[in-house]
Structure formats: C-alpha cells, structure tokens
Amino acid sequence: MRPPARRGRRLALPALLSLLTCSLAFALVSKDVKKEVKQSKNLEKSGISEKNDIDLKGIAFVIQSQSNSFHAKKAEQLKQSILKQAADLTQEVPRVLLLHQLAQQEGAWTILPLLPHFSVTYSRNSSWIFFCEEETRIQIPQLLEALRRYDPSKEWFLGKALHDEESTIIHHYAFSENPTVFKYPDFAAGWALSIPLVNKLTKRLKSESLKSDFTIDLKHEIALYIWDRGDGPPLTPVPEFCTDGVDSSCATTFHSFLPLCGNPVKKKDIFVAVKTCKKFHGDRIPIVKQTWAGQAGHIEYYSDYADSSIPTVDLGIPNTERGHCGKTFAILERFLSHSYDNIAWLVIVDDDTLISISRLQHLLSCYDASEPVFLGERYGYGLGTGGYSYVTGGGGMVFSREAIRRLLASKCRCYSNDAPDDMVLGMCFSGLGIPVTHSPLFHQARPVDYPKDYLSHQVPISFHKHWNIDPVKVYFTWLAPSEEDRARQETRKGFKEEL
Predict the structure, then answer these.
(1) pLDDT tens across 366-400, in order?
(2) Rg of the chain taking only CA atoms, in angstroms
(3) 400 CB contacts (<8 Å, ≥6 apart)?
(4) Minimal CA–CA distance to 80: which of 104, 99, 66, 61?
(5) What are the distances in angstroms from CA 236 to CA 39, 149, 196?
(6) Is pTM, for the whole model, over 0.85?
(7) What angle separates helix 69-88 from helix 140-147, to the nearest 10 degrees?
(8) Which residues contact 171 (CB under 8 A, 6 or more apart)?
(9) What is the DSSP letter of 420?
C-alpha cells in the first residue's frame, strides 16, 4: 500500500468534514452531556446504593501491550498483579489478555478490529471489557465497587474524561466551536465497555467498514466512533479511574515516572540527525543550539546547502516542500556506511523538534540495541484495510542499528524524494515484520495541543512545531534537565494554568 504522496493534505478531508458537521456535533454532544449529567444525578439519588452483582469472572481485562521485549515484560507483570489480587480475594481467576498476543494483524492496537472477537468470546459469560495500559495500577476491590454502580445490561462507555482546551490539528479541529464539550478517555486510567455496547459496535463494524484512513490519536477516535454523532453513548466519567492516586477510593492509578532499566545509555551511543534546509538555517537552527543540541554527544545537521557556520552536511538531495523521504534514506545510508560502527542508536528529528536527550538516554536503557527497534509516537494508515503503523516524524524517530541494517538490506526505498518519509519507513518495517514500538512521551505537536490532565502524568521526551509558541520557553518549561534549569519545577507547578 503506497502512502499518499502529498502529505500536507492528508488531514484536509477529515478536517473539512469535522468543520462541516461541527454545529450539529456540538448540539448533539451538548444534549448527550446534559442527559449524562441528569442520568448521573438520578443514579446518585436512587442507584448508588443499588449495587449490581458483579465479580471478577464478569470482567475481561485487556492490557494494551506491545510485542517489544521490554513492554511485553511490563504487561506480564501487571497481569500477574491482577491474578495475585484475585487469589488474595479468593475469587475465580479472571481473564487477563495481552493485546499483542490476541492477533497478529497490524491494526490490533487500534482496538476496534478486535471487538468482534470480544463479542463472540465473552458476551455470554462477561459483563465488562476493561482496558488499561501496561503502567496502569489496578486495585481490584475498588474497581469492582466502582463497576457495581453501572447496570451491565445497558450500554456503558466508562473512563477518566479528557477534553481539548482548544481545537487542535491532531483531532482534525473537531468541535471547534467548543472543544471542551467532547470527552474522551485517558487510557492511562483504564477504560471500560459494557458487553451490550461491545455487541452493538460489533454489529456496526460488520455492516460498515471503518472510514478513516489515518489513526492519529486513538483515544479520541475511539470515543468519536462510539458516540457516533449522538447515536451511541458519550463517555461517562468515573471518579475512581485515576492517574494521580491521591484519593484512597481510586480503583486505578498510573506510574508517571521515566523508565530506567539500569544505567542510562551514554551520549556517545546516540547519534542525532537534524533534517533542515537553507531557508531555516537562520531561524530554526539557532533555537536547536540554544536549547537541546548541547546535550547530544554526536549531532549533524543535514541540509540541501553546505553552510560551514553551522555546519551543515549537503546530502546531494534537493529540498522538497513535503515528504523528505530521499533525505531521510540518505541519512540512514550515511549512518551505516560512515565510521559510526560503535554507535548503537540513531535519532532523526526535524529542525523544529524540541527534544530532551537526557530523558531519551533513560528511556533507551530499556531497549536492546541488538534487536530491530523502531521507536516513537505511533500513527496508523489504512489499518482497517491491511495498512501499516508508522512513527510520526515530527516527534523524533529512533532506530537501533540493527533496525537500519535490516531495512537497508531489504531494498525497500522511497518511490520519490518527496514521499512522506515516516510513512514509507512504516510500510517498509511492516513488510519486514518489524513492529513500531510506541512511546507516548514523544509528541508530534505542541504542549498546547494536548489536554492538561494528559500531560500531567507524563515526563515528556519531545514536542514539535514552533507555531504560535515561544519554543525556547517550551523547552525550558517541559524538557530541560534540572541541572540546566533550576527554575523549571517552579514553572511546572503552575502548568495547568499556563497551557
């Protein structure tokens, strides 16, 4: 499957459709929210004390795991924690599923393609499908207590609610009149679907195929699909689904630390390639040097023009307005063919990427560079019809040397210099059977493009774009190592008001 050649337009149709339907959507969501609030109040008056009978055998747990060895191990640890709690409660052992083991299809991580399987397998003996991330921590007694408030014979979509403060490109500018009105779940806190809702969604999936070509922000897109312009339920916020864990009634919490597995990877083992072009030498490169470049042990700037003052390397690839596939593959080939044999990792970033190299050193300590690792923020293209996942380039693409070696040995290449490089890479790695490894700590957009509550439980590694922000301030607020910026903690404590 060839990715679209003109990448800059790939959000145009969804964005237009979202804008055209926004007034209708706003009215429908507002109606749904009012109905939900009324329903919650009625529940408080008459239903809170009326507990629905449910035990662990009525819940199928799905851990949104990945096949990479580090992530598979974390998911297995969570599975064992759930099983141990069940044993301590002397309850029947629940079904705990690891997402990466459920199906070999490329798009399993997008959840929706698996709903028919859940409907067939669990509709008779289960009441709920409960999803969580590998770092979600679950208190089983509190979870059972929370779910008992909701009648499992009805259609429920439960979670910790996030909302956009302003319309954003990553959500195709949906609900631009009032982005706060639409709620979607924070996967880190866990989220749940009642079996009647799973069955309803399964019927819809069988009667009509998924329409969207791109998977950008899964949690938002799942909520949109379930809501179905008012024909399905909106997200019902559950106070016990937490990420901060400050309340003893929390059924879930989330570990918001930066992963560290042994010693951080040394700077000398990470090579950073910055993609740029002549027209940005004067405004973007100085920001790179003012912020994060000093952290890098090895860094080169690749351009269409050799500028000794930076210095830049001219790869002999003409600059293109979009795509940059030719330039990216030239960087990969240069990395393997030049004297970098002792460098385990390559990071390719844009000249308007803001990144923390020190945090990346911590994160990479959890991955084995002898394995083919392709790491970053995961997007999807055509996953409903046999497409592929890819690492979106703006937040940074991380490659192990082994991944690059296998890629270049495969002869999979750009179909044109201006093809979308990240998508072509995703297509190539998919063909090689090398999965994308997702980390939500990489970001394709700016901090203002994400919900405050979502970023509050992250230690971010990167952001992207300088548009309408002060990139230096963003770097020192969100990404600078503490030894570089002692005042960062003072700045961050008010981040909920600042964004």
Answers:
(1) 999 999 999 999 999 999 888 999 999 999 999 99
(2) 23
(3) 344, 345, 367, 368, 369, 370, 371, 372, 373, 374
(4) 61
(5) 10, 12, 15
(6) yes
(7) 80
(8) 18, 164, 179, 216, 217, 220
(9) B
